[in-house]
Specification:
Chains A, B, C, D, E, F: Pathway: Purine metabolism; 7-cyano-7-deazaguanine biosynthesis. The structure is a homohexamer. Chain A contains 4 helices and 5 strands. By secondary structure, chain A is α+β, with helices and mostly antiparallel strands. Chain A has helices at residues 24-31, 64-79, 84-87, 98-110; strands at 3-15, 40-52, 82-83, 118-126, 129-133. The first copy, chain A, has a single domain, classed as Tetrahydropterin Synthase, Chain A (2-Layer Sandwich), CATH 3.30.479. Chains in contact: A-B, A-D, A-F, B-C, B-D, C-E, C-F, D-E, E-F. Chains A and F meet through strand 1, strand 2 and strand 3 of A and strand 1, strand 2 and strand 3 of F.
């Protein structure tokens, strides 16, 4: 019997989509307003989903208090109220698109989640634009 | 051609997470505030998802009026404004974690849904904590 | 120039609507399923609204970090994961209807908010039932 | 590495569920209030999900600005503020149930989305009734 | 002591904005796509707010079960799954704009609500367009 | 007869809360993480509310298509995907707190709205922190 538990969290951050090896015009052509050199920002909403067998003693797949703390330590502490391009090492050479942020979060959490549990990450950049990644 | 239809419902209930064979200290250690002997409660939001071939005559996978009534009879009548630990027989010997409530709901509905239809249940205990189960 | 700042919080609690001086039948007649002697519960959503002049130096009517902590200390610590009837002194002799819970919260916060600021409290018992109170 | 990007859109439309080859009584028996000959309507919410490999240069699975425009051209222009039964050719001989609307949208978008990308469509007819289809 | 209780409800309806004494061109010029002669529709969300003194015995301003039934009888029964222009007598000579629908609802409910209670109606035509009316 | 019409819009922006005449330590003491020199950002949600008499011919207080365009021209064009501190002239000498942003938006819209109409602006910085201003 496999069940999925989901925990929702959020963080606010600034970012900019651009490639250093392209000039401003090409960046604007590809990334539009998102390439603004002065940055813009979002309230990111994050859903972390963990799938596995419930523990027989507790009825928990994973204690959601522990998942909440893990998300706090790995994601909120690292990203909240930050400029993703400037202050978050993972995005020094990686464009902080929603896709890439989701993959970075998945990679950070994957090492901390029990190995036989599946992991999926859904990241809302806005209420209308969101991405999901499950390590496939 | 397989399509999934989803119906959202809700119920309000009190519960407590604890094991009778553990003392209050151990229960508090594992279940935290959720082990409060005086109970606490939630507005549970439920999404029931049924997947199958649409009927050629009606265009319906399953008439959502019938699914709505089924959820009312099997879940809302049984759980709404109830104390899950005290008044719902399924939780006499089973801890009413979100995981276990989702499995109980899935089992109740499974027998009433057409056999060649797949069934998934998603249960929100709070807007930030939720679980899903599809009988695998 | 008067501006209103709003802060949203939440807590989960069990309650029961009944009068000790009425028998179970009369309680059921008036309060319906909400009078269930075994309790039921809700995810209460709370919006606290404070109106006043913004501070000239900071641009803040009231620092929302301080309002967040105040709500935590006065409301969440006192009500979250509690049985309102049994564990919260204010409801020993007062029926914990949404109306009365809102008034109790307003009274607790009023003494901690700057005197020349107006205060309003909105409390959602469910997404469809809610109340508001501004001390008038 | 496969990631899913999701874009949310909406449109308002009138519709009626009925079969021309059934009389009003049989239509009412099967489709209830939804068979009202004078039509009723909905604010449809649509989520389009595209799964594929992110582009190495841009970090995008699919540019969401392009997906937004595609949904505008294929779905909003065709369905918004329309009477689905009367004005949308696809429903001349097809009952505009949520299931069928989702399939029609999926078919329209499928030809415009890169072939090696997977496509899923979720359509909310109301906040409580919704369907999803992924072309299987 | 005056408290406001709010109850949320919803109904789905078709409508069209136009004046019989204007031709189609002028109607389109003023009402745009909303003047479509074939109708379009919405999921209307309604919030009814009643302000008054709580009853000393029950702690209720107004029993929300009674308010729920009143909204059902006066609004949902009359408007849900209807074509407002064709089937609802109040809109035979009145354009069913959100403003006018809100006033019609307010007038219908005003006669059924205790006289010393204030009444306000908020009507969402879409999540982005809504109106409120309090009889002033 | 006075009715309020509301229109919801949104924009994404970066900002930083700080006073140039304070050093970083004092800024951090007062504004906390919001003073981050590298900026952070938000998805701002905006509700603009206009109160007045409905037009006798159209049933509109104010055509919501015109209000939508006005918000687009005055707010979205000016703020969306911008760094409020660096790129928006109104915040050159004014801290972009939610309170101040709301007042700036109100002032911009006030000159464009019919004089005998009342105006209120509600601005969500996050789903839990928001402000409202009506020019009093």
């Amino acid at each position: 019997m496999r069940i999925t538990v989901h925990r929702k969290a959020h963080f606010n951050a600034a970012h900019r989509l651009y490639r250093k090896d392209w000039d401003d015009d090409r960046n604007f052509e590809v990334f539009g307003k998102c390439s603004n050199p002065h940055y813009h920002g979002h309230n990111y909403e994050l859903i972390v989903s963990v799938t596995g067998e419930p523990n027989l003693e507790t009825g928990f797949v994973m204690d959601l208090k522990i998942l909440k703390e893990l998300i706090y330590d790995e994601v909120e502490e690292a990203f909240d109220h930050k400029n993703l391009n400037v202050e978050v090492p993972e995005f020094k050479e990686l464009i902080p698109t929603a896709e890439n942020i989701a993959v970075v979060i998945w990679n950070k959490l994957r090492t901390k989640i029990q190995e036989d549990h599946d992991l999926e990450v859904t990241l809302y950049e806005t209420p209308r634009n969101f991405v999901s990644y499950k390590g496939e």
